[in-house]
Amino acid sequence: MEFPSATKAAPATEETPLNKIKDGILSKSSHLEVRDAVNFDTNTKESTVSITVVGASGDLAKKKIFPALFALYYEDCLPKHFTIFGYARTKMTDAELRIMVSKTLTCRIDKRENCNDKMEEFLQRCFYHSGQYDSEEHFMALDKTLKEHEAGKQSNRLFYLSIPPNIFVNVVKCACTSASSANGWTRVIVEKPFGRDSESSATLTRSLKQYLEEDQIFRIDHYLGKELVENLSVLRFSNLIFEPQWSRQYIRNVQLIFSEDFGTEGRGGYFDNYGIIRDVMQNHLLQILALFAMETPVSLDAEDIRNEKVKLLRSIRPLQLEDVVIGQYKSHTKGGVKYPGYIDDKTVPRDSLTPTFAAAALFIDNARWDGVPFLMKAGKALHARGAEIRVQFRHVPGNLYKRSYGMNLETNELVIRLQPDEAIYLKINNKVPGLGMKLDRSNLILHYATRYSKEIPDAYERLLLDAIEGERRLFIRSDELDAAWSLFTPLLKELEEKKVVPELYPYGSRGPVRSHYLAAKYNVRWGDLGTESHQA
């Protein structure tokens, strides 16, 4: 059986809205023109999009997916004809689904007008269908209901799998054999984790491809939808001051930091099956590293960008155990409050060796990055919450001010704060005003909340819209996934086979002491997450 692939857009001419994207001139009205020209063309084809959230009663659907869909509707970014279906085993009516969804919906801070009306309109487009995840009969019933709402229009169908990975294949099989679109496209969004290692990931991919083509599978990593990650290639490839310096000649090291100031908080049972390396480093941080370090793509086409990411991932030197530090948080009393340790969670085995913290030094064996350490750090129950890319540049050759005044200059540093409180700042040396010669280190800052009045969209909004429009640039291709797992699988197996004991660190601390020794091994000092002010 064949299943329709994504509709291909016609080549853009000088008059098409697509060129507005290339020229960087994209207003809200232009975005809607592009949307209709590329995929929907609702004025002529009368197509409709049916979005089925499989696992609609779960936390992810309630907290992220439905709110993101409403935000897209509020901004007029969804097609003219669309319907949203919740699908899960839980018994629920349409009205009960709408009550559940309504509790999670909010409007943009800067756009409160007609909020209640828009919410009501959106909720009237939401319906519920109860069924088992492995029942073709139940998906046939869903198909019948979808057709009733599609009313003879060209039907495009998007299935969002907000479910555990062990039932991905069952749902895909049932959806594709019993509820696939007969005259439009069918796409499936798959949430991580995409396996636990190379073998299980490859097995999952093979199983999905029994029913789907590669261009129908949208593997979502929500970090790729974050505004500052999206801005990374713009910062690099459209600013002459950065691109010539983006190499070993000028950059001393790069740090990718992910920090949470809370523990597993009831998710210990799930987390213990994966650990911080699988949960954060193999996907979020490695994807950011690939975008940061890849060569200039031929174009901004999704395949050209993903080709460069795959090349970069395949250039990373195999990880060595001596270049990795793992840790696990323990209980700690601070300010009279006792914070629980990881193994205090009743769903976690008392003898668990699962890391809640990991730091690693990676090296890229190519001409651009030869010898530059890329240091990753990710952890739970640390002193601060945030995610950053920190680029530390080399020392100024000659150090004129040391020779003349005995002063040691700080190195320049570019910091891209992904979350929270998004910002980009460049640390520079400058003279303190006055008659004497005194140097100071200051920040040149682009603080998004100050510079832009518009609220930054949630990552799920961007990624859902891209999936509907067939834009794959921010989704992970199967060979990307293979390359990522090929890097981390040998390390994970070695950690598990040797039963490496993680270093304990207090809840709310800066993590294991050994992580600082790892950085010092390569003449690096970790950036102090969350300490910089927005003031210069």
TrEMBL record:
InterPro entries: G6P_DH, G6P_DH_AS, G6P_DH_C, G6P_DH_NAD-bd, NAD(P)-bd_dom_sf. The keyword Calcium does not apply. Its EC number is 1.1.1.49. It catalyses: D-glucose 6-phosphate + NADP(+) = 6-phospho-D-glucono-1,5-lactone + NADPH + H(+). GO terms for molecular function: glucose-6-phosphate dehydrogenase activity; NADP binding. SUPFAM superfamilies: Glyceraldehyde-3-phosphate dehydrogenase-like, C-terminal domain (SSF55347), NAD(P)-binding Rossmann-fold domains (SSF51735). It is an enzyme of class 1 (oxidoreductase). Pathway: Carbohydrate degradation; pentose phosphate pathway; D-ribulose 5-phosphate from D-glucose 6-phosphate (oxidative stage): step 1/3. Residues 53-231 form the Glucose-6-phosphate dehydrogenase NAD-binding domain. GO terms for biological process: glucose metabolic process; pentose-phosphate shunt, oxidative branch. Gene3D superfamilies: Dihydrodipicolinate Reductase, domain 2, NAD(P)-binding Rossmann-like Domain. Keywords: Carbohydrate metabolism, Glucose metabolism, NADP, Oxidoreductase. GO terms for cellular component: chloroplast stroma. Pfam families: G6PD_C, G6PD_N. PROSITE patterns: G6P_DEHYDROGENASE. Belongs to the glucose-6-phosphate dehydrogenase family. Catalyzes the rate-limiting step of the oxidative pentose-phosphate pathway, which represents a route for the dissimilation of carbohydrates besides glycolysis. This is Glucose-6-phosphate 1-dehydrogenase. It comes from Acorus gramineus. The lineage of its organism: Eukaryota, Viridiplantae, Streptophyta, Embryophyta, Tracheophyta.
